[in-house]
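Subject: Sanity check before I submit

Could someone independently write out the structure tokens for this chain? I want to compare against mine line by line before I put it in a report. The sequence has 202 residues.
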Amino acid sequence: MEIVKNILELTLEHLSLAYGALILSIAIGIPLAIASLYNRKLASVIITIANLIEAIPSFAVVALVVPLLGIGFRPAILAILFRALLPIIKNTYIGLSNVDNALIDAAKGIGMTNWQILINIRFPHAYPPMFAGIKFAAILSNGIAVLTAIIGSGGLGKLIFEGLASFNIKKIFYGVIPVMVIAIATDYLLTFTEKRITPEVL
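---
Independent answer below. Compare away.
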């Protein structure tokens, strides 16, 4: 029973770490994508910075936050945030910008404001690429949350690295299996949500 309790505690810690960072990434990434839509210079800067961050290996990103914030839960959140931002920004921006100009012109013709066009036309057409970006970011967040255990973030990564250090295969599986279940469940929930909110005409 003690191992079950320990796995549950570490799973909750892992979920807080991985998906707390993912929610922050969505909260930051989507507004940045919207801002980029109306400012090409800003779009160029944001996409370039995001691409540069994405080019850095995950292990290096985790290592880079240590001199800035030390070790523990908060630096781990920042490392995951950096890695999850690009697919959210990039896919949302692509989805919002790749809308038929005829639809935009028609909307303007009937007096819709830019905000109304964004909410009622651009976003519904952007859902498929946007959710693809969020799904990929969720996979990254889940995986990097395991890696951040090396800087003391806790979570299921702690169990996995302890198992590796002691050659304890059972302990490794205790950590790996919940991570896999979380990844599959997240993908299913995001796919279900996408289908529920995406207009059928799309």
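---
OP: Matches mine. For the report I'm noting this point. The domain at 2-197 is CATH 1.10.3720.10 (MetI-like fold).
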